[in-house]
Design goal:
The protein has 160 residues and is an alpha+beta fold. The chain is 15% helix and 51% strand. It folds into 2 domains: 31 residues; 113 residues, no CATH class. The chain contains 1 helix and 10 strands, in the order ββαββββββββ. A 6-stranded antiparallel beta sheet has the order 4-5-6-3-10-9, with no helix packed on it. Strands 1-2 form a two-stranded antiparallel sheet. The chain starts with 8 loop residues before the first strand and ends with a strand.
């Protein structure tokens, strides 16, 4: 028994070219379904992530616009991440005294900004991505809103 007949059909049912086109379409649809499932968070429900960030040694007049409820920005669009707490304190620093020793001191002018941000995200693997930024303690975080952009350092991460 031959695989193709005189018309070029496999088992007399479908043309080889038609079969190849059908297989390509099925592969594209399967790939799209896989990507859609991956992006839609098929791994689980969204969890609330709370992050505390410090932006050290800022001029006090730069902090006037920072307030609770500000939405963070990623690229040129707003995210669902908001500031839930704002603390401004005297900037802590290490300096050298007249004897050449390193000593702790507080800067009389500069301020440290400590904010708590919160948002919901799906955690599909070994990384937490919140508002377009990777979240881990000790990692840089950009406190970026419509009116300001400060570079900070993540102090703590809480997942509910």
């Amino acid at each position: 028994m031959r695989l193709t007949d005189e018309n070029g059909k496999i088992f007399g049912i479908i043309n080889i070219v038609d079969l190849l086109v059908l297989l390509v379409i099925l592969l594209v649809l399967a790939g799209a379904a896989y990507k859609f499932k991956e992006r839609s968070g098929g791994e689980g429900a969204a969890k609330t992530v709370r992050v505390t960030v410090i932006a050290p040694a800022l001029r006090p007049e730069m902090l006037n616009n920072v307030k609770v409820g500000d939405r963070m920005v990623s690229g040129s669009s707003f995210t669902d991440v908001v500031i839930t707490d704002v603390k401004i304190q005297t900037s802590y620093t290490i300096t050298i005294d007249s004897a050449g020793k390193r000593v702790e001191a507080f800067d009389p002018y500069l301020k440290d900004l400590i904010v708590t941000i919160e948002g919901k995200t799906v955690i599909p693997g070994a990384t937490i991505n919140l508002g377009g930024q990777e979240i881990r303690s000790g990692k840089d975080y950009f406190i970026k809103s419509l009116d300001y952009d400060f570079k900070g350092l993540i102090l703590s991460v809480e997942i509910e």
